Protein backbone atom coordinates (compact mmCIF):
# COMPACT_ATOMS: atom_id res chain seq x y z
CA UNK A 1 0.00 0.00 0.00
CA UNK A 2 2.68 2.43 -1.11
CA UNK A 3 0.08 4.94 -2.29
CA UNK A 4 -2.08 4.82 0.84
CA UNK A 5 0.76 5.35 3.29
CA UNK A 6 2.83 7.71 1.19
CA UNK A 7 2.06 10.73 3.39
CA UNK A 8 2.90 8.80 6.55
CA UNK A 9 6.22 7.56 5.19
CA UNK A 10 7.10 11.03 3.91
CA UNK A 11 6.32 12.63 7.26
CA UNK A 12 8.28 10.01 9.19
CA UNK A 13 11.20 10.56 6.80
CA UNK A 14 11.06 14.33 7.41
CA UNK A 15 11.20 13.72 11.15
CA UNK A 16 14.39 11.69 10.83
CA UNK A 17 13.04 8.17 11.23
CA UNK A 18 14.60 5.31 9.29
CA UNK A 19 12.00 3.44 7.26
CA UNK A 20 11.58 0.05 5.69
CA UNK A 21 8.43 -0.39 3.59
CA UNK A 22 7.35 -3.84 2.44
CA UNK A 23 4.70 -3.57 -0.27
CA UNK A 24 2.71 -6.20 -2.20
CA UNK A 25 1.75 -3.51 -4.72
CA UNK A 26 0.85 -5.39 -7.96
CA UNK A 27 2.12 -2.48 -10.08
CA UNK A 28 5.68 -3.51 -9.27
CA UNK A 29 7.29 -6.95 -9.71
CA UNK A 30 8.97 -8.46 -6.68
CA UNK A 31 12.01 -6.47 -5.60
CA UNK A 32 11.26 -3.43 -7.78
CA UNK A 33 8.97 -1.40 -5.49
CA UNK A 34 9.87 2.32 -5.35
CA UNK A 35 11.95 3.82 -2.56
CA UNK A 36 10.16 4.66 0.68
CA UNK A 37 9.30 8.27 -0.16
CA UNK A 38 9.56 8.22 -3.93
CA UNK A 39 6.56 9.61 -5.81
CA UNK A 40 5.06 6.99 -8.09
CA UNK A 41 5.08 8.42 -11.64
CA UNK A 42 2.21 7.45 -13.88
CA UNK A 43 2.53 10.17 -16.51
CA UNK A 44 0.49 8.41 -19.17
CA UNK A 45 -2.43 8.06 -16.79
CA UNK A 46 -2.23 11.75 -15.92
CA UNK A 47 -2.24 12.65 -19.63
CA UNK A 48 -5.25 10.39 -20.17
CA UNK A 49 -7.18 12.10 -17.36
CA UNK A 50 -6.23 15.64 -18.37
CA UNK A 51 -7.16 15.08 -22.00
CA UNK A 52 -10.63 13.68 -21.25
CA UNK A 53 -13.22 16.04 -22.75
CA UNK A 54 -16.29 14.97 -20.78
CA UNK A 55 -14.75 13.46 -17.68
CA UNK A 56 -13.91 9.96 -16.44
CA UNK A 57 -15.89 7.22 -14.73
CA UNK A 58 -13.78 4.94 -12.53
CA UNK A 59 -14.86 1.32 -12.04
CA UNK A 60 -13.34 -1.02 -9.48
CA UNK A 61 -14.73 -3.92 -7.48
CA UNK A 62 -11.73 -4.13 -5.16
CA UNK A 63 -9.15 -6.86 -4.73
CA UNK A 64 -11.46 -9.54 -3.32
CA UNK A 65 -14.04 -9.58 -6.11
CA UNK A 66 -12.32 -11.07 -9.17
CA UNK A 67 -13.65 -10.64 -12.70
CA UNK A 68 -14.82 -14.26 -12.92
CA UNK A 69 -16.86 -13.85 -9.73
CA UNK A 70 -19.34 -11.48 -11.41
CA UNK A 71 -21.85 -13.05 -13.78
CA UNK A 72 -21.21 -12.42 -17.46
CA UNK A 73 -24.66 -10.90 -18.01
CA UNK A 74 -23.99 -8.26 -15.35
CA UNK A 75 -20.57 -7.47 -16.80
CA UNK A 76 -22.26 -7.19 -20.18
CA UNK A 77 -24.82 -4.76 -18.69
CA UNK A 78 -22.04 -2.53 -17.32
CA UNK A 79 -20.08 -2.59 -20.58
CA UNK A 80 -23.14 -1.75 -22.67
CA UNK A 81 -24.10 1.19 -20.46
CA UNK A 82 -20.60 2.65 -20.26
CA UNK A 83 -19.94 2.21 -23.98
CA UNK A 84 -22.94 4.38 -24.85
CA UNK A 85 -21.92 7.28 -22.60
CA UNK A 86 -19.72 10.23 -23.64
CA UNK A 87 -17.40 9.69 -20.69
CA UNK A 88 -14.03 7.96 -20.67
CA UNK A 89 -13.83 4.93 -18.41
CA UNK A 90 -11.01 3.50 -16.29
CA UNK A 91 -11.84 -0.03 -15.16
CA UNK A 92 -9.73 -2.10 -12.76
CA UNK A 93 -10.06 -5.46 -14.47
CA UNK A 94 -7.93 -8.46 -13.48
CA UNK A 95 -8.72 -10.50 -16.59
CA UNK A 96 -6.77 -10.43 -19.85
CA UNK A 97 -9.66 -9.05 -21.86
CA UNK A 98 -12.97 -7.35 -21.13
CA UNK A 99 -15.66 -8.85 -23.38
CA UNK A 100 -17.36 -6.19 -25.50
CA UNK A 101 -14.95 -3.43 -24.43
CA UNK A 102 -15.51 -0.22 -26.40
CA UNK A 103 -13.00 2.47 -27.36
CA UNK A 104 -13.86 4.71 -24.39
CA UNK A 105 -13.04 1.97 -21.84
CA UNK A 106 -9.48 1.48 -20.64
CA UNK A 107 -8.70 -1.51 -18.43
CA UNK A 108 -5.79 -2.25 -16.10
CA UNK A 109 -5.09 -4.77 -13.36
CA UNK A 110 -4.18 -1.94 -11.00
CA UNK A 111 -4.76 1.79 -10.61
CA UNK A 112 -3.46 4.20 -7.92
CA UNK A 113 -7.01 4.50 -6.64
CA UNK A 114 -6.53 7.04 -3.85
CA UNK A 115 -4.72 9.50 -6.13
CA UNK A 116 -6.93 8.73 -9.12
CA UNK A 117 -10.12 9.62 -7.28
CA UNK A 118 -8.67 13.01 -6.34
CA UNK A 119 -8.30 14.04 -9.98
CA UNK A 120 -10.88 16.73 -10.92
CA UNK A 121 -11.89 14.86 -14.09
CA UNK A 122 -13.32 11.91 -12.12
CA UNK A 123 -17.12 12.14 -12.36
CA UNK A 124 -18.22 8.93 -10.70
CA UNK A 125 -16.91 5.87 -8.87
CA UNK A 126 -18.68 2.53 -9.53
CA UNK A 127 -17.55 0.37 -6.63
CA UNK A 128 -18.22 -2.77 -4.61
CA UNK A 129 -18.71 -0.45 -1.58
CA UNK A 130 -15.76 -1.76 0.42
CA UNK A 131 -14.78 0.28 3.47
CA UNK A 132 -11.44 1.56 2.10
CA UNK A 133 -12.93 2.44 -1.29
CA UNK A 134 -15.76 4.28 0.45
CA UNK A 135 -13.32 6.21 2.63
CA UNK A 136 -11.14 7.17 -0.35
CA UNK A 137 -14.16 8.31 -2.39
CA UNK A 138 -15.46 10.48 0.44
CA UNK A 139 -12.00 11.98 0.99
CA UNK A 140 -11.80 12.77 -2.74
CA UNK A 141 -15.35 14.14 -2.88
CA UNK A 142 -16.50 11.68 -5.58
CA UNK A 143 -20.13 10.40 -5.71
CA UNK A 144 -20.71 6.67 -5.97
CA UNK A 145 -22.72 3.82 -7.40
CA UNK A 146 -22.53 0.73 -5.22
CA UNK A 147 -22.78 -2.86 -6.48
CA UNK A 148 -22.03 -4.81 -3.27
CA UNK A 149 -21.42 -8.55 -3.21
CA UNK A 150 -20.48 -9.64 0.35
CA UNK A 151 -19.51 -8.79 3.95
CA UNK A 152 -19.94 -5.15 5.02
CA UNK A 153 -20.52 -3.92 1.48
CA UNK A 154 -24.32 -4.08 1.65
CA UNK A 155 -24.27 -2.05 4.88
CA UNK A 156 -21.97 0.55 3.32
CA UNK A 157 -24.15 0.73 0.21
CA UNK A 158 -27.21 1.45 2.35
CA UNK A 159 -25.32 4.36 3.91
CA UNK A 160 -24.64 5.78 0.44
CA UNK A 161 -28.38 6.15 -0.01
CA UNK A 162 -28.96 7.39 3.54
CA UNK A 163 -26.42 10.21 3.23
CA UNK A 164 -27.30 10.95 -0.38
CA UNK A 165 -23.79 10.31 -1.71
CA UNK A 166 -24.64 7.52 -4.14
CA UNK A 167 -27.08 4.90 -5.41
CA UNK A 168 -26.93 1.18 -4.48
CA UNK A 169 -27.78 -1.55 -7.01
CA UNK A 170 -28.39 -5.26 -6.48
CA UNK A 171 -25.58 -7.27 -8.11
CA UNK A 172 -27.95 -10.17 -8.87
CA UNK A 173 -30.88 -8.27 -10.35
CA UNK A 174 -29.80 -4.87 -11.71
CA UNK A 175 -30.67 -4.23 -15.34
CA UNK A 176 -29.00 -2.20 -18.05
CA UNK A 177 -31.72 0.43 -17.72
CA UNK A 178 -31.31 0.70 -13.92
CA UNK A 179 -27.56 1.16 -14.19
CA UNK A 180 -27.88 3.75 -16.95
CA UNK A 181 -30.43 5.71 -14.90
CA UNK A 182 -28.20 5.54 -11.81
CA UNK A 183 -25.12 6.77 -13.71
CA UNK A 184 -26.96 9.69 -15.33
CA UNK A 185 -28.64 10.62 -12.06
CA UNK A 186 -25.51 10.63 -9.92
CA UNK A 187 -23.42 12.55 -12.48
CA UNK A 188 -26.03 15.15 -13.43
CA UNK A 189 -27.55 15.70 -9.99
CA UNK A 190 -25.01 17.89 -8.22
CA UNK A 191 -26.59 17.13 -4.83
CA UNK A 192 -24.69 13.81 -4.71
CA UNK A 193 -21.30 15.53 -5.03
CA UNK A 194 -22.32 18.26 -2.59
CA UNK A 195 -23.41 15.64 -0.07
CA UNK A 196 -20.07 13.80 -0.40
CA UNK A 197 -18.17 17.04 0.22
CA UNK A 198 -20.43 17.88 3.16
CA UNK A 199 -19.85 14.42 4.65
CA UNK A 200 -16.10 14.80 4.12
CA UNK A 201 -16.11 18.13 5.98
CA UNK A 202 -17.99 16.52 8.87
CA UNK A 203 -15.56 13.61 9.08
CA UNK A 204 -12.47 15.83 8.86
CA UNK A 205 -13.74 18.25 11.54
CA UNK A 206 -11.46 16.84 14.26
CA UNK A 207 -8.96 18.26 16.79
CA UNK A 208 -6.06 17.00 14.67
CA UNK A 209 -5.66 15.67 11.15
CA UNK A 210 -5.36 11.95 10.47
CA UNK A 211 -1.68 12.35 9.51
CA UNK A 212 -0.96 14.22 12.77
CA UNK A 213 -2.76 11.51 14.76
CA UNK A 214 -0.84 8.79 12.93
CA UNK A 215 2.44 10.59 13.64
CA UNK A 216 1.59 11.10 17.31
CA UNK A 217 0.73 7.45 17.92
CA UNK A 218 3.69 6.18 15.89
CA UNK A 219 6.13 8.31 17.85
CA UNK A 220 4.31 7.49 21.10
CA UNK A 221 4.98 3.79 20.49
CA UNK A 222 8.62 4.59 19.65
CA UNK A 223 9.04 6.66 22.83
CA UNK A 224 7.59 3.91 25.04
CA UNK A 225 8.56 0.81 23.10
CA UNK A 226 10.22 -0.80 26.15
CA UNK A 227 6.93 -0.90 28.05
CA UNK A 228 4.86 -4.06 27.96
CA UNK A 229 1.39 -2.50 27.90
CA UNK A 230 1.51 -2.39 24.09
CA UNK A 231 1.68 -6.16 23.87
CA UNK A 232 -1.53 -8.12 24.01
CA UNK A 233 -1.52 -10.97 26.54
CA UNK A 234 -2.29 -13.33 23.67
CA UNK A 235 1.25 -12.82 22.33
CA UNK A 236 2.58 -14.84 25.28
CA UNK A 237 0.27 -17.78 24.73
CA UNK A 238 1.21 -21.01 23.00
CA UNK A 239 -0.69 -22.05 19.88
CA UNK A 240 -2.47 -24.70 21.96
CA UNK A 241 -3.77 -22.07 24.36
CA UNK A 242 -4.34 -19.32 21.78
CA UNK A 243 -6.62 -21.51 19.65
CA UNK A 244 -8.18 -23.28 22.69
CA UNK A 245 -7.10 -26.65 21.32
CA UNK A 246 -7.57 -28.42 24.68
CA UNK A 247 -11.07 -26.97 25.03
CA UNK A 248 -12.16 -28.09 21.57
CA UNK A 249 -10.59 -31.51 22.04
CA UNK A 250 -12.63 -31.89 25.22
CA UNK A 251 -15.82 -30.79 23.44
CA UNK A 252 -15.23 -33.21 20.56
CA UNK A 253 -14.39 -35.99 22.98
CA UNK A 254 -17.65 -35.44 24.88
CA UNK A 255 -19.59 -35.34 21.60
CA UNK A 256 -17.82 -38.54 20.53
CA UNK A 257 -18.71 -40.30 23.78
CA UNK A 258 -22.38 -39.29 23.50
CA UNK A 259 -22.52 -40.41 19.86
CA UNK A 260 -20.91 -43.73 20.77
CA UNK A 261 -23.39 -44.29 23.64
CA UNK A 262 -26.25 -43.33 21.32
CA UNK A 263 -25.17 -45.80 18.62
CA UNK A 264 -24.58 -48.57 21.17
CA UNK A 265 -27.97 -47.95 22.73
CA UNK A 266 -29.75 -47.98 19.36
CA UNK A 267 -27.93 -51.18 18.40
CA UNK A 268 -28.89 -52.81 21.72
CA UNK A 269 -32.55 -51.79 21.33
CA UNK A 270 -32.66 -53.12 17.76
CA UNK A 271 -31.05 -56.39 18.86
CA UNK A 272 -33.52 -56.68 21.76
CA UNK A 273 -36.52 -56.00 19.50
CA UNK A 274 -35.22 -58.54 16.99
CA UNK A 275 -34.96 -61.22 19.72
CA UNK A 276 -38.50 -60.43 20.90
CA UNK A 277 -39.81 -60.68 17.32
CA UNK A 278 -38.11 -64.09 16.82
CA UNK A 279 -39.40 -65.32 20.20
CA UNK A 280 -42.98 -64.31 19.42
CA UNK A 281 -42.74 -65.89 15.94
CA UNK A 282 -41.52 -69.22 17.40
CA UNK A 283 -44.16 -69.09 20.11
CA UNK A 284 -47.01 -68.67 17.61
CA UNK A 285 -45.84 -71.73 15.67
UniProtKB/TrEMBL annotation:
It catalyses: glucuronate acceptor + UDP-alpha-D-glucuronate = acceptor beta-D-glucuronoside + UDP + H(+). GO terms for cellular component: membrane. Its main location: membrane. Keywords: Glycosyltransferase, Membrane, Transferase, Transmembrane, Transmembrane helix. InterPro entries: UDP-glycosyltransferase (IPR050271), UDP_glucos_trans (IPR002213), UDP_glycos_trans_CS (IPR035595). Its EC number is 2.4.1.17. It is found in: Membrane. SUPFAM superfamilies: UDP-Glycosyltransferase/glycogen phosphorylase (SSF53756). One of its GO terms (molecular function) is glucuronosyltransferase activity. Belongs to the UDP-glycosyltransferase family. This is UDP-glucuronosyltransferase.
